[in-house]
Amino acid sequence: MHWRRREDGVVTGRLVDHRLAFLRGEMGSLQRLARRRLHAMPMLMPFGTGVTFAVSGALPDDERCRVLLAGFMPDEPDWVRQWWELDLWSRLEACARRVLSHVLVHDDGRVEIADPDSADSFVMAVRAVALIADHRFGADGDHGWVTGWLRRIADMVISS
Question: Which of 29, 100, 101, 139 is most exposed, with the fewest beta carbons within 10 Å of its own?
């Protein structure tokens, strides 16, 4: 994997076919997971006169959702995770959507990240996919390669 930043600021790289297909599939799954959770969780909480906020009424049943909450807010108690859960799912859904529509668009494996918002979205979404893959496959052993290359890509985009 060779990633670089061109003189015009665009970060470029290339993914082999099976990795591109895997990442596209996982981005679609992440987007659907975030949408389902956003649809299922809101509970309106009064906050002052005439103001309400949508917050989570309970932690999610889906294990992938719990893994992501713990991964993005590792040091927070459950009630804090519930308070900020709406923001996390909204951000993850937007990141996955942006990656699918702006970054993973070339069928030849070429990846071009043209602006800082796309780079931020790409890194956050790839890290979310890596957290789920760690949980599903295990970070060590036969399937550790899955999360290894995902994390290397995120690190390369950040550092380039």
Answer: 101
pTM tops 0.90: no
d(C-alpha 70, C-alpha 60), whole Å: 12
Tell me the pLDDT tens digit for each residue of 37-75: 988 877 777 777 777 777 777 888 899 999 999 999 999
Among residues 154, 34, 35, 27, which one has the least CA distance to residue 96?
Answer: 27
What's the half-sphere exposure (Cβ side, CA atoms, 13 Å) at 24? 18
Alpha-carbon distance 103 to 82, whole Å? Answer: 30
Calpha distance 142→90 (Å, rounded): 33
